[in-house]
Structures are given as C-alpha cells and as structure tokens.
C-alpha cells in the first residue's frame, strides 16, 4: 500500500505484472486518434486563415463542421455553408463547397469525419434550394465520381465499435445516394419542396397516370431505404449517428405522403 498526496492509502501496482484491460486500452487508442485528428484539423484551420483567400470562410466552416470530436456538426458552421450554397450565391462558390466537402470523404477519413461530412451534405440537401443537388450532380459528372455519397465499402478498422459505426455509415450513405439519384431522375424532392412550399404536392395533378407510375417505384425504394436506416450496436449509442438517424426519420412521413398522393392521383380519388 502507498500513501497518496491526499493522504489516502492506495494499492500499489507492479508494472512488471500489470495487464491493462483491453477495453481501457482501446478507449485510450480511440481518444489518442481523435486528439491527433483534432490537432490536424486545427492546423488546417490555422493555415486556411493564414492564406486568407476568397474561400477562407468556406474552408474553415467545412473543417470545423466535420472535425473529429464526437458531437454533431454545429449549426453555426452549417449556417455558413448554407449561405454559401444559397440559390442566389455564385455557382462557382457552390461548386467549391461541394468540392471541399467531397475532399473530406476522399482522404480515407475515420468514421467521425466521414459521418459528419455526410450529415453536412444531408442538411444542405434538405435545407438549401434544390439547385444545390444539381451542383452535386454536375460535380459528379465533371469529376467522374458518380457515387460521391455512396460509401458502401467504407470501413474503419480501429476497433469493434468503429466497425459498428462503419456499418451505419454504409447504410446511411446508400440512402443519401439513392435520394440524390431520385432527385436526378424525377426532378422532385418531397422534403425540400414541402419545406419551402406546402402546396408543392399539387404539381402532381399535372402528371399523367403513366408518369406517376414511373415515379412511384423510385419513391417506394427511398421509403425502403429509410426503414433500413437504424443504427445498431455501438452506433445506437453514438450522439452523432443518432443525429443522422433523426434527419432521415424527418423525411419518413413526407415521403409516405408523396407515395399516397401518387396512388390517389393515379386512381383519380
């Protein structure tokens, strides 16, 4: 027994025989990885401010919104990107924002950076003018990255928990990719249009029964993706993954309403 600085008696540990708990060791490794990633991100922020170019505000907002801390992207950083991608913003500025976000996915990131980048893409798709999705499609066609949001082979091998997070990222990314594909094919996003104009569903009345039947399978596929977006394992206890799942669930009733409207219009009800 040894006496601590506070006067309490504590059990001495022999460093030659002490075997650390694997879980404690893994937590320490994860923490060290996050700390190292945070330091790297902070250095990138500093370098962006030093360069002080025209895009410094976007550069800083992208990095800070996707930093390696286990919290969802902050609203203030997402707000900066929303302003940069508004319908009235120069298209070159919107394209640059898409490029900076995509670069965060292309650098073989850990699960935190990958998931938070997908969340930022998701929020911009939901909360910005639909023209933002047009810019993502143009970026894909220009760069050949036709599955920019689809991380169906993503894997973070750090630990068992990161495997669970990787599985969630794969499911979530496939939903976002299919959502974008649906916008590209039918040029309609129920969630975005409803948020900006509640009467947007009336446009379905102008479609023929054949057009509506063509659109119905696309929406039904998205509804299926939504039902699959359920975090499991360690992902079910992560604040960031639950935040992403909540964003997906916000679209559930809107897409169900859209599918119902298609049925009613087709049947002439």
TrEMBL record:
The keyword Membrane applies. This is ANTH domain-containing protein. Its main location: cytoplasm. The lineage of its organism: Eukaryota, Viridiplantae, Chlorophyta, core chlorophytes, Chlorophyceae. It comes from Dunaliella salina (Green alga). Keywords: Coated pit, Cytoplasmic vesicle, Endocytosis, Membrane. Gene3D superfamilies: 1.25.40.90. Residues 50-190 form the ENTH domain. Signal peptide: none annotated.
């Amino acid at each position: 027994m040894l006496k601590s600085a506070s006067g309490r008696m504590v059990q001495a540990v022999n460093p030659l025989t002490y075997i650390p708990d694997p879980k404690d060791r893994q937590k320490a490794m994860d923490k060290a990885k996050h700390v190292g990633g945070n330091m790297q991100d902070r250095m990138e922020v500093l370098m962006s401010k030093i360069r002080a170019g025209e895009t410094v505000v976007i550069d800083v907002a992208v990095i800070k919104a996707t930093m390696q801390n286990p919290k969802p992207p902050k609203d203030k950083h997402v707000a900066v990107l929303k302003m940069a991608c508004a319908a009235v913003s120069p298209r070159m500025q919107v394209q640059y924002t898409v490029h900076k976000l995509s670069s965060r996915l292309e650098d073989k990131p850990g699960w935190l950076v990958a998931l938070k980048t997908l969340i930022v893409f998701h929020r911009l798709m939901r909360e910005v003018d639909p023209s933002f999705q047009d810019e993502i499609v143009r970026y894909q066609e220009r760069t050949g990255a036709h599955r920019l949001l689809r991380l169906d082979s993503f894997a973070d091998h750090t630990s068992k928990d990161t495997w669970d997070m990787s599985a969630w990222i794969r499911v979530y990314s496939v939903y976002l990719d299919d959502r974008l594909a649906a916008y590209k094919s039918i040029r309609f996003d129920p969630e975005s249009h409803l948020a900006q104009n509640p009467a947007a569903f009336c446009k379905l009345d102008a479609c023929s029964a054949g057009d509506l039947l063509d659109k119905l399978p696309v929406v039904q596929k998205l509804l299926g993706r939504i039902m699959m977006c359920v975090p499991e394992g360690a992902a079910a206890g992560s604040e960031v993954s639950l935040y992403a799942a909540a964003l997906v669930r916000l679209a559930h009733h809107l897409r169900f309403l859209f599918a119902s409207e298609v049925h009613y219009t087709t049947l002439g009800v």
